[in-house]
């Protein structure tokens, strides 16, 4: 992936935006278990009383609480509450909310910030627990003796007394008020001895229950308090869910945009790179492989980029955040998460080592399948002609089975992996419930916190699952990325010079071969040796020779499909290696040995040479190429449809349309590489006569094996085994060149040779 980093840089802004949205989404997801915990702990168990700081309390209650506080704390708490006198105008405005104001004074909490609220909460919680515990002891005669020991059991020298022997209706708090402050604080500590072992959240929960009783004494609507809290937390959860959903949709849009954009850029870059390849590079990368790299490999990268943006950045945030929040809920159960992560890590490593080697060979198997498919489709007529359908079916079946077997193996690993992960996840859930239930029974953990811890554990678990899926997908994407990078980083053997030369306006467009030699990449010997001749404007130069003598190799060096390994090719007096490829090829009308048409119409194929050509120019080129007759046979005329590769026209028609296409360009140099082989002699003769008239001032090079085609040529170059063995006219070669004479006599009668 690092090799393609330049194609990711333009989308960094979008990726950063996605990360920001993922951070927001993760925080929304992480907050939901905490709010669910509040609903259970506060909304259900505490009746909606969220903390140990009551919004209001009776003045008598505050007097009881003050017995277990120092003077500074009493003063601070007193400043945070407003004393509302019964019967006052202020009392009448609040009486509907606090009905007890009709009979007694009430303290109403002022608006406090979080710091001020937290500053008095611990003191109020301890005092409420002390008052509540004493009230419960007073209501239970059997527990009163224990309270007496708590308040005066230190030798009786401090005025110890037995609560069970107090007269009915006596105010125990008034009695406690007469004791020294130190003794009252000691009494509160001993009464709350059991509660003191609880954690902060459990203390607040216990105090909240006492505050709930205070609210009942004030006449407040208990159901309304609970309902208001549940609706508030529920609305927050709905809002967080909505925000998370919006972030998810936005991230999905961004990931799709980024992935499709990068894929588009890669496909475009690969296609542009391949267009600049010489034939040497096509020998390195097969056509089937290039198709796979452009489509399948890019698609693999696109899928992984989408998954990376949505998972790779999200999973660590949710995993780390889940660990932090789970530890905040209950740090004593950290070992459960550690155990789950360890087991998951072992599973991921095992699967990774099994699956990754298979991914490395998968793309090669796809290449092989594409190669067999392409050969079968393009060579169907040959296959049928030789009755080889069975053999080709076996080849395809083998390639198909190899790929299928590899995919099935990987999929079986994935199929096994998911149930094992679900088993581990469910086992972790049971373990959390088992351990958490014991802690709830021991009053060291709240039920809501246990449920939240379990949800955080699941979030951590799913974060690891997401990461594991990426670890498995990334190796295959890495293989695809490397295959694409190989194409993009391939150095073209035919390059434009840094400072290309330009043709001199009006210069003679001759083609000169000067002591030319050439060797194909990887070959041990040259296929061309010391080729030297010149093709001049206004003349037709024909190159003839036996099969394999190097005819096409010679003319292929003119448009720089390859570069010469020795000597040089000069066009217009300039070495072709000093010219830009675009300028050079703009001067050449090339008709290849194998005529190739593009899907579209006759007109679109002819306009391929010059998109701005007039209809008259198209018709003129078709007439010279002897293609007018079969074009006119169709009702569509120039709009006659052409299938891919010209499969709906004959070989001769394809050659004539290819020649017409070159004529539309009207270049100063024409190269016909065995372009008349599919034409009958009559059409061949008519075409050559028309060409002679049309290309009178152009340099014309014709490669052929037909002597009849070159008889009238101004210059005939005879090749044999990559060497020039004769140059001259037909008559001169018949007398002086044995090789030419053998070719001619094998094709034409003695009368035709005259």
Number of strand segments: 15
Q: Work out the count of structural domains.
A: 4
**Low-confidence runs of at least 5 consecutive residues:** 150-161
Q: Strand content of the residues, in percent? A: 5-15%
Across the major sheet, the strand order is: 9-12-13-6-14-15
CATH architecture of the largest domain: Up-down Bundle
Q: Quaternary state, please?
A: single chain
Helix run count: 28
- CATH class category label of the largest domain: Mainly Alpha
Radius of gyration based on Cα positions = 46 Å
Mean pLDDT over the residues: 83
What is the assigned CATH homologous superfamily of the largest domain? ABC transporter type 1, transmembrane domain
Shape: rod-shaped
The largest β sheet comes out as:
6 strands, mixed
Report on this structure:
The chain contains 28 helices and 15 strands. It is of the alpha/beta class. It has 4 domains: 170 residues, no CATH class; 218 residues, ABC transporter type 1, transmembrane domain (ABC transporter transmembrane region fold, Up-down Bundle); 173 residues, P-loop containing nucleotide triphosphate hydrolases (Rossmann fold, 3-Layer(aba) Sandwich), CATH 3.40.50; 68 residues, no CATH class. The strands form 4 sheets. A 6-stranded mixed β-sheet has the order 9-12-13-6-14-15. Strands 5-4-7-8 form a 4-stranded antiparallel β-sheet, with no helix packed on it. A 3-stranded antiparallel β-sheet has the order 1-3-2. Helix 1 packs antiparallel against helix 10, helix 1 runs antiparallel to helix 17 and helix 12 runs antiparallel to helix 14. The longest helix has 54 residues. The protein is rod-shaped.
């Amino acid at each position: 992936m690092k090799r393609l980093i330049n194609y990711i840089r333009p989308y960094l802004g979008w990726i950063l935006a996605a990360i920001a949205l993922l951070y927001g989404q993760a925080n929304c997801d992480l907050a939901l278990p905490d709010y669910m915990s509040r609903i259970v702990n506060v909304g259900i168990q505490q009746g909606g009383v969220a903390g140990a700081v009551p919004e209001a309390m009776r003045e008598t209650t505050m007097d009881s609480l003050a017995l277990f506080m120092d003077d500074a704390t009493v003063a601070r708490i007193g400043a945070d509450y407003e004393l509302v006198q019964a019967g006052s105008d202020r009392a009448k405005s609040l009486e509907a909310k606090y009905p007890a104001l009709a009979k007694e004074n009430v303290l109403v909490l002022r608006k406090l910030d979080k710091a001020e609220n937290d500053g008095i909460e611990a003191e109020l919680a301890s005092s409420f627990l002390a008052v509540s515990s004493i009230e419960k002891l007073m209501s239970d005669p059997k527990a009163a003796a224990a309270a007496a020991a708590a308040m005066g059991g230190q030798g009786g020298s401090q005025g110890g007394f037995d609560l069970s022997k107090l007269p009915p209706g006596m105010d125990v708090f008034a009695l406690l008020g007469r004791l020294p402050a130190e003794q009252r604080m000691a009494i509160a500590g001993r009464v709350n001895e059991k509660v003191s072992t609880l954690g902060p959240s459990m203390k607040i929960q216990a105090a909240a229950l006492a505050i709930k009783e205070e609210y009942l004494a004030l006449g407040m609507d208990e159901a309304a308090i609970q309902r208001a809290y549940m609706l508030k937390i529920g609305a927050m959860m709905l809002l967080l869910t909505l925000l998370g959903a919006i972030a998810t949709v936005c991230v999905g849009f961004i990931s799709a945009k980024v992935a499709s954009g990068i894929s588009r850029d890669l496909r475009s870059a690969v296609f542009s790179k391949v267009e600049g390849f010489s034939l040497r590079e096509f020998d390195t990368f097969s056509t089937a492989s290039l198709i796979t790299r452009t489509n399948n490999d890019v698609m693999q990268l696109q899928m992984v980029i989408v998954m990376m943006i949505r998972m790779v950045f999200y999973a660590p945030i949710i995993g780390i955040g889940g660990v932090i929040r789970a530890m905040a809920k209950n740090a004593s159960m950290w070992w459960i998460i550690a155990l789950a992560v360890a087991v998951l890590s072992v599973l991921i490593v095992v699967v990774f080592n099994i699956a990754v080697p298979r991914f490395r060979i998968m793309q090669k198997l796809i290449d092989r399948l594409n190669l067999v498919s392409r050969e079968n489709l393009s060579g169907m007529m040959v296959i049928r002609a030789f009755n080889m359908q069975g053999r080709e079916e076996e080849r395809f079946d083998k390639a198909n089975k190899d790929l299928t077997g590899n995919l099935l193996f990987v999929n079986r690993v994935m199929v096994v992996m998911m149930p094992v992960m679900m088993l581990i996840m469910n086992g972790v859930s049971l373990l959390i419930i088992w351990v958490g239930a014991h802690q709830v029974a021991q009053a060291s953990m709240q039920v809501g916190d246990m449920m939240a811890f379990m949800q955080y554990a699941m979030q951590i678990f799913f974060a690891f699952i997401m990461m594991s899926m990426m670890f498995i997908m990334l190796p295959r994407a890495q293989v695809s990325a490397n295959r694409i990078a190989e194409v993009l980083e391939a150095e073209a053997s035919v390059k434009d010079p840094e400072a290309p030369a330009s043709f001199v306006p009006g210069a003679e467009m001759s083609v000169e071969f000067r002591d030319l030699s050439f060797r194909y990449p990887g070959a041990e010997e040259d296929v061309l040796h010391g080729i030297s001749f010149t093709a001049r404007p206004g003349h037709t130069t024909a190159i003839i020779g036996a099969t394999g003598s190097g005819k096409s190799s010679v003319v292929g060096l003119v448009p720089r499909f390859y570069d010469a390994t020795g000597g040089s090719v000069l066009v217009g007096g300039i070495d072709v290696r000093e010219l830009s490829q675009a300028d050079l090829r703009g001067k050449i009308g090339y008709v290849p040995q194998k005529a190739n048409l593009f899907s579209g119409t006759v007109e679109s194929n002819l306009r391929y040479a010059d998109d701005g050509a007039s209809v008259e120019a198209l018709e003129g080129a078709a007439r010279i190429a002897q293609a007018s007759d079969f074009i006119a046979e169709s009702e569509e005329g120039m709009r006659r449809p052409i299938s891919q590769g010209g499969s709906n026209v004959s070989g001769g028609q394809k050659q004539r349309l290819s020649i017409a296409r070159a004529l539309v360009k009207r270049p100063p140099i024409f190269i016909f590489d065995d372009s008349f082989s599919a034409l009958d002699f009559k059409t061949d003769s008519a075409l050559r006569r028309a060409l002679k008239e049309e290309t009178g001032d152009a340099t014309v090079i014709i490669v052929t094996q037909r002597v009849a085609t070159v008889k009238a040529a101004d210059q005939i170059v005879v090749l044999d085994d990559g060497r020039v063995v004769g140059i001259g006219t037909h008559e001169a070669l018949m007398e002086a060149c044995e090789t030419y004479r053998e070719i001619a006599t094998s094709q034409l009668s003695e009368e035709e040779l005259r």
